[in-house]
């Protein structure tokens, strides 16, 4: 096996000399988490956007290619699902045999070299995935997905997809001389897909651990002649001690011997960036993880990822990596609340998908009902909220109909929902904001942006409380003796894991530490943030049974919530949650989305200043008696607000 050197130019001079070798500059470009954002358009707002779209990323791709003599372009998945165009193609219009999916109409024009599958590729089922991938003019890889042979012996599992490919490429060195090089590309995705998409994958596919799979295949790739190896994990970056089958395994993957570049994704974040500066072994100036050049280019086409390798070949044709860097380039920049485009959209990409794009807009404008009050998610993380309430109302309505006449008839039905659009990494404009009046399909999709299918679980009162304890990890602990500013929201806790459960009443005591960490482990066993919990005005009976409406992601383990591992599921509904929501609005015709205020923060004694950030637009809906007050500008276009606990 050839030894890989990740060093500076000084090592090049000492190790190789200049009489028999020439440098090759190889640039590897990455897109990831496009989620069908091909056109620079926000289907929920029904307006153009400068912050999304492969059409804009395409301009960066072409510029980056022109700067170097040698380049590769690779996509890292979560491509065919994620916005109304994806749903329209999969659920409404359909994809006939021989038709090309719009994502590949665009990507084939850009001449990608390879693609990796993400977890959301499986949301529409294996048949649709197969029909879609047939349209790609480039190969796909995924190494840790295997055919379920039913024998419980992982050692003989056969890959469901090509685990890796070895690309034969011709490169030109700095002296103009041509060389042949073999580039290995290996892909990975979260093992949890078999839980998250159980309805589509049970009995068909199984998954293995990302790092273990890499250790199996990377040596094999070397034996088959790969000169350099690019790992493409659809997996985030975390240095938390591995538990096996980890969702975010990129950090420990970087320690597998033989990798020369890592193109990662899934986390909807940017690497290198300040976010990761405190992780041991990460160099954000160099763009490396444990010495391996890496990049993660955001989401929805917001960035292009670049890994630049300096290679040298000796007289025997052995390639060495002598320098490497990872970086990203954005399609826009933010100035306060404003987003300024850095590039124009590539018109050839726009033209390639104009028919499907136009059909999607027309479809999303169809009305399903009216609302008697505005619906927004501005304060969804700090108080009971109408954008969650309308979803939980619809789920409860649906499940109560399903259980009539069954063994579960008569058991109280609760309903869990979370704010999907609540700022965070999506930015200061990433909120639901539906005015009073007509509700169209675009508004329904805005309220429920994921194609989850409805599930119901059977739990006791104690388990419902633990569910909410996990959810309460969204908040930082408040120190009653601290008179300085304290930040309320935990930035590492995604808003889609902040579940509100309607049908019970409760308070959240912020003076207590979180009972669970984000991996679902109890870290403060004596702590309980969920207090004063009642059902119909009486203290919650921890032994009483409840049917809780939720979605397939949560019910089958998504978010690592206690008692939610698939074993408590009693209803696997055929309908998507947002279809349930649309049908509920259509049935009711006119809805009142007002929040029922079933949860709130417990009072805090002490002179504390607790703040949080949300959109500046939220200040326009504050009343004189609100416990929330606007106190000024926040970071990156957000507004800063203070909340009272008196």
Automatic annotation (TrEMBL):
<keyword id="KW-0479">Metal-binding</keyword>
<protein>
    <submittedName>
        <fullName>2', 3'-cyclic nucleotide 2'-phosphodiesterase</fullName>
        <ecNumber>3.1.3.6</ecNumber>
        <ecNumber>3.1.4.16</ecNumber>
    </submittedName>
</protein>
<keyword id="KW-0378">Hydrolase</keyword>
<dbReference type="Pfam" id="PF02872">
    <property type="entry name" value="5_nucleotid_C"/>
</dbReference>
<dbReference type="InterPro" id="IPR006179">
    <property type="entry name" value="5_nucleotidase/apyrase"/>
</dbReference>
<keyword id="KW-0732">Signal</keyword>
<dbReference type="InterPro" id="IPR004843">
    <property type="entry name" value="Calcineurin-like_PHP"/>
</dbReference>
<dbReference type="GO" id="GO:0009166">
    <property type="term" value="P:nucleotide catabolic process"/>
</dbReference>
<dbReference type="GO" id="GO:0008663">
    <property type="term" value="F:2',3'-cyclic-nucleotide 2'-phosphodiesterase activity"/>
</dbReference>
<keyword id="KW-0547">Nucleotide-binding</keyword>
<dbReference type="InterPro" id="IPR041827">
    <property type="entry name" value="CpdB_N"/>
</dbReference>
<dbReference type="InterPro" id="IPR036907">
    <property type="entry name" value="5'-Nucleotdase_C_sf"/>
</dbReference>
<dbReference type="InterPro" id="IPR006146">
    <property type="entry name" value="5'-Nucleotdase_CS"/>
</dbReference>
<keyword id="KW-0511">Multifunctional enzyme</keyword>
<feature type="domain" description="Calcineurin-like phosphoesterase">
    <location>
        <begin position="26"/>
        <end position="269"/>
    </location>
</feature>
<dbReference type="InterPro" id="IPR008334">
    <property type="entry name" value="5'-Nucleotdase_C"/>
</dbReference>
<dbReference type="Pfam" id="PF00149">
    <property type="entry name" value="Metallophos"/>
</dbReference>
<dbReference type="GO" id="GO:0008254">
    <property type="term" value="F:3'-nucleotidase activity"/>
</dbReference>
<dbReference type="GO" id="GO:0000166">
    <property type="term" value="F:nucleotide binding"/>
</dbReference>
<dbReference type="InterPro" id="IPR029052">
    <property type="entry name" value="Metallo-depent_PP-like"/>
</dbReference>
<feature type="domain" description="5'-Nucleotidase C-terminal">
    <location>
        <begin position="368"/>
        <end position="565"/>
    </location>
</feature>
<comment type="similarity">
    <text>Belongs to the 5'-nucleotidase family.</text>
</comment>
<dbReference type="GO" id="GO:0046872">
    <property type="term" value="F:metal ion binding"/>
</dbReference>
<dbReference type="GO" id="GO:0030288">
    <property type="term" value="C:outer membrane-bounded periplasmic space"/>
</dbReference>
């Amino acid at each position: 096996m050839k030894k890989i050197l990740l060093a500076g130019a000084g090592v090049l001079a000492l190790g190789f000399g200049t009489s028999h070798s020439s440098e090759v500059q190889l640039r590897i470009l990455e897109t990831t988490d496009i989620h069908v954002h091909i056109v620079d358009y926000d289907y929920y707002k029904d307006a153009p956007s400068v912050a999304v779209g492969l059409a804009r990323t395409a301009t960066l791709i072409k510029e980056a290619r022109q700067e170097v003599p040698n380049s590769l372009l690779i996509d890292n998945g979560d491509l065919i699902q994620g916005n109304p165009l994806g749903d329209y193609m999969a659920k409404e219009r359909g994809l006939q045999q021989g038709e090309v999916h719009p994502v590949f109409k665009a990507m084939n024009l850009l001449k990608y070299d390879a693609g990796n599958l993400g977890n959301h590729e499986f949301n529409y089922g294996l048949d649709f995935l197969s029909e879609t991938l047939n349209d790609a003019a480039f190969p796909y890889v995924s190494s840790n997905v295997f055919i379920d042979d039913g024998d419980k012996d992982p050692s003989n599992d056969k890959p469901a997809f090509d685990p890796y490919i070895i690309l034969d490429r011709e490169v030109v060195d700095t002296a103009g001389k041509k060389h042949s090089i073999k580039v290995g590309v290996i892909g990975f995705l979260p093992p949890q897909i078999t839980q998250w998409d159980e309805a589509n994958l049970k009995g068909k596919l199984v998954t293995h651990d990302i790092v273990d799979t890499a250790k199996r295949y990377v040596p094999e790739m070397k034996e088959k002649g790969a000169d350099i190896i690019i790992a493409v994990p659809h997996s985030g970056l975390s240095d938390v001690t591995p538990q096996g089958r980890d969702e975010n395994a990129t950090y420990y993957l970087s320690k597998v011997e033989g990798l020369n570049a890592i193109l990662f994704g899934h986390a909807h974040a940017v690497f290198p960036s300040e976010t990761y500066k405190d992780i041991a072994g990460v160099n954000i100036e160099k763009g490396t993880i444990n010495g391996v050049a890496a990049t993660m280019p955001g989401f929805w086409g917001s960035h292009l990822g670049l890994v630049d390798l300096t290679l040298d070949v000796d007289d025997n044709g052995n390639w060495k990596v002598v320098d490497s860097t990872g970086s990203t380039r954005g399609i826009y920049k933010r100035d306060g609340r404003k987003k300024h485009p850095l590039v124009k959209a590539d018109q050839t990409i726009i033209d390639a998908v104009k028919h499907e794009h136009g059909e999607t807009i027309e479809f999303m404008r169809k009305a399903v009902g009216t609302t008697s009050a505005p619906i927004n998610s501005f304060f969804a993380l700090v108080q009971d909220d109408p954008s969650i309430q309308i979803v939980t109302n619809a789920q409860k309505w649906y499940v109560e109909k399903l259980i009539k006449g069954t063994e579960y008839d008569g058991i109280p039905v609760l309903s869990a929902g979370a704010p999907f659009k609540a700022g965070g990494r999506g930015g200061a404009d990433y909120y639901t904001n539906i005015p009073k009046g007509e509700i169209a399909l675009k508004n329904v999709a805005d309220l429920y942006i994921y194609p989850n299918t409805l599930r119901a679980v059977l739990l006791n009162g104690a388990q419902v409380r633990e569910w909410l304890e996990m959810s309460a990890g969204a908040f930082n602990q408040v120190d009653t003796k601290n008179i300085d500013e304290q930040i309320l929201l935990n930035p590492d806790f995604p808003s889609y894991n902040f579940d509100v459960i309607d049908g019970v009443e409760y308070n959240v005591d912020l003076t207590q530490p979180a009972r669970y960490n984000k991996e679902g482990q109890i870290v403060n066993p004596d702590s309980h943030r969920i207090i004063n919990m009642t059902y119909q005005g009486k203290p919650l009976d921890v032994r009483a049974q409840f049917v809780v409406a939720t979605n397939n992601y949560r019910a089958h383990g998504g978010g690592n919530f206690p008692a939610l591992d698939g074993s408590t599921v009693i209803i696997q509904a055929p309908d998507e949650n947002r279809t349930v929501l649309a049908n509920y609005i259509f049935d009711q015709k006119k809805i009142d989305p007002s929040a029922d205020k079933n949860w709130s923060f417990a009072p805090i004694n002490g002179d504390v200043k607790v703040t949080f950030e949300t959109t500046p637009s939220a200040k326009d809906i504050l009343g004189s008696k609100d416990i929330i007050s606007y106190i000024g500008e926040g970071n990156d276009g957000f507004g800063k607000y203070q909340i009272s606990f008196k």
